[in-house]
Amino acid sequence: MSLTDQINKKRREIKTDGYPMSIREWVSMYERDELDIHPEFQRFYRWTAGQKAGLIESILLGIPLPPIFVSQRPDGVWDVVDGLQRLSTIFQFMGLLRDENGKRLEPLTLQGTKYLPSLKGIQWECAENPKNSLPKELQLVVKGSKVSASIVLKESDESAKYDLFQRLNTGGSELSPQEVRNCLLVMINKAFFEWLKELPKFEPFVLTTALSDRPLEEAYDMELALRFVLLARIPEGDVKAIGDVGAFLTDRVSELAQDKRFRRAEAKQLFEDTFTVLAEVLDELAFKRYSTKKKKHEGGFLLSLFEVVALGVAYNIAEGTLCTKQEVAKRARSVWTEKAFTEWATSGVNASRRLPRLIPLGRKLFAR
Question: Nearest to residue 157, comparing CAs of 351, 342, 331, 10?
Fold first, then answer.
């Protein structure tokens, strides 16, 4: 198929529309439940009070806002694909924003901005102190301001909105790659997302990974759980075809979330069995560098060690070929004398080159 044919085919699969809408119209759709801004996404986005005030400042000053990207569902409801924080901020300022349970959140109180320092302490309506309410004429300015809608119509290919969401929310986004995946999962299959979210809460996993606060804030523990689920039993021939690992994780988890044949209970059991063994024999040292000279573990969590130890132990548990628990600890430390590990576990080797070497190494290392 030629490039032109490929483009024409894909263009036919994605049907779009777009037009300017007033904030009054956006509010009306939200109040009629015709607009789903996915309040559960709030846990992933981290807009500051300054960013929120800056958005209201832009509206009041007449500065054009980027379009809101939405996807039309079969029932006609619009899913917000990009623009969650803009709409959430507007709705919260107006006292309309609801949480996942439908409960209204506390209205937003603005802080002063560079061009409008008098916004400090301003609310949409402040019954306790009317002087802190946004004047009626300015409320009308906000309601009448235009924010364009760019719509992926329901006739489009089902995967279009997920691809659009991923493209719009990566590169330059404040979200980590896993937080973007989490948003995708909520859109695709919320039950699967909730299942995956529970895995890294397993106490032996928490103990052995010993992650610091920053990675936890960026959902890195969920990314590790996802890597485990996708890679623990992957055929070795498929490992070489992974390519960009970030794209692989996103594509595969999207497929897995929609796969009715996927056995969640079996995957969870393997996860728990693996980290129970590692917690018992290595404790919080499981994925830390081992100095053969000092004969002790040091440093923090190492992903390359996770790829050898966790995935190697898991594979052999699943196959019924795991060595004794005492041997697990010895062999995990012995990896630092393995040239096959030290050559490929350096920071300069990317995951697409590293995994085809380390996954087979781990499987062989922990076999009895």
Answer: 10
How many independent structural domains does the chain possess? 2
Domain for residue 175, yes or no? no
DSSP per residue over 321-342, as a string?
-B--HHHHHHHHHHGGG-HHHH
pLDDT class of 168 with cuts at 50, 70, 90:
low
Beta strand 146-152 pairing with 16-22 = antiparallel
Q: In terms of domains, do 119 and 264 share one? A: no
For 283-310, what is each residue's pLDDT tens digit? 999 999 988 888 888 899 999 999 999 9
Single-letter code of the amino acid located at 317: I
Sheet arrangement for strand 16-22:
16-22, 146-152, 68-72, 78-82, 35-36
Do 35 and 143 lie in one domain? The reply is yes
pLDDT on residue 172: 45
Q: Which pTM does this prediction carry?
A: 0.72
